[in-house]
Amino acid sequence: MTGGHHVNWLPLALAAMIALMSAWLNQLAKAPRPLDDRGFTHDPDYIVEQFKVRTFDLEGKPRHLLSARRMVHYMDDDTSELDLPFFHLTTAQRAPIEVVAQRGLIFGDRDSIHFIGEARATRGATAAQSAFVLSGEHLRVVPDAGILNSDKPVILRQGGSAIHAGGLYADERNQRLELTGGVRGHYE
Q: I need a surface site. Which of 1, 158, 167, 185 has the fewest CB within 10 A?
């Protein structure tokens, strides 16, 4: 090169690359959050305050009542979370059963309700039987089948008797109760 200026292009190329990277990162920061594999983020699609649902039998008599302080539904996995759920099951010729807990979960199939955190099921006294209270950290209720079960430790109290078990399966229709896993207790 005669009489001309020699220009070093390397710093200019680096500066241009840095400017392009800055612009790209700036666009990335403004872009919407990526969706999960199923196409939806795990955000609620609706929330119901003072949630309450009643079902009736074929004769029009009340069968179940499910209520909660709040119900939050998630579209991505079709689950519903319940805050302070309350469930009331009316049974033929027997005292009703009531179930409460800190939280509840209903999955997409909607056949069962999971009661989680200080869960308690109570059946009132009848002329033939004293009241019983079942407590544990997790109870699952299948309303249409009349089933209550748990694979977590439970305590069953009736009168002055208390039974501790590793799990439980109760079938209301067939009047069957199974206790599993290290059953122990005292009877009065």
A: 1
